[in-house]
Design a protein that fits this description.
The chain is mostly helical and 178 residues long. It has 2 domains: 82 residues, Arc Repressor Mutant, subunit A; 81 residues. It is 67% helix and 8% strand. It contains 7 helices and 3 strands. The protein has a 3-stranded antiparallel sheet. The protein is elongated. The two termini are 40 Å apart.
C-alpha cells in the first residue's frame, strides 16, 4: 500500500489535518496496518514538498494548533493516475512463508519443515475463523466485510498451498539435498 496515495485519496474529500487523516485511514481501511502519526506527518511533508498538497488553514480545537492540508491540481492528477493504473501480478514469490519452508528443508530437514507447515496451517485456520466471525457479525461495517473477504481469499490460497506442500515435503527434501 502506498501511504502517500492513500492520503491523497483521503484528501480528495476536502482539507484535513494529520490527526483526522490517521483516524479516517484507520476507520475506512479496517484490517490494514494502522498508520502512525509520525508516518502521516512525514508523508504530508513529502507531499507538500512535491507540490501534491498545500497547507489550507490552521485549527485549534482545545488542543494544539493543527494544520489542514488540501490537494493541489497536481495531487489530484497523481491520485487519478494511481487509481487508474492496473497493478501487475507479482513477478516473484516474495513470501516469508515460502522462504521458511525451503530454508527449513535445507537447514533442518523434512521433519522440521513438516512441523512448520502444520503449525502455520493451524495459525492460518485460526485467523480464518476470526475473519469469518467478522463477516458474520451484525456489528461489522461494509468495509470490515470487504477487508475480511480479501484476507479470507488470501488465507484460502495459502491454506491450499500449505496442504499441497505438506504432500510434497519428501520430494522437496530429496531435491534440495541431492
Amino acid at each position: 500500500m502506498s501511504t502517500s496515495h492513500v492520503l491523497l485519496g483521503l484528501l480528495s474529500a476536502g482539507p484535513r489535518h494529520g490527526y483526522e487523516l490517521k483516524r479516517v485511514h484507520d476507520e475506512r481501511l479496517p484490517q490494514a496496518k494502522p498508520l502512525a502519526y509520525g508516518q502521516v506527518y512525514a508523508t504530508l511533508g513529502r507531499l507538500e514538498r512535491d507540490g501534491l498538497v498545500e497547507q489550507s488553514g490552521q485549527e485549534q480545537e482545545g488542543g494544539p494548533e493543527r494544520t489542514s492540508y488540501a490537494l493541489t491540481d497536481a495531487g489530484r492528477d497523481k491520485l487519478t493516475e494511481w487509481l487508474t493504473a492496473v497493478e501487475p501480478p507479482a513477478p516473484y514469490v516474495n513470501s516469508d512463508l515460502f522462504a521458511k519452508v525451503i530454508v527449513s528443508l535445507l537447514a533442518a530437514g523434512a521433519a522440521t519443515a513438516t512441523d512448520y507447515l502444520v503449525a502455520q496451517r493451524a495459525a492460518h485456520t485460526s485467523r480464518l475463523r476470526e475473519l469469518t466471525a467478522v463477516k458474520t457479525s451484525r456489528d461489522s461495517s461494509a468495509g470490515d466485510v470487504v477487508a475480511a473477504d480479501y484476507a479470507i481469499a488470501h488465507l484460502d490460497a495459502d491454506l491450499s498451498w500449505l496442504q499441497t506442500t505438506l504432500l510434497r515435503v519428501a520430494d522437496l527434501h530429496r531435491e534440495v539435498n541431492a
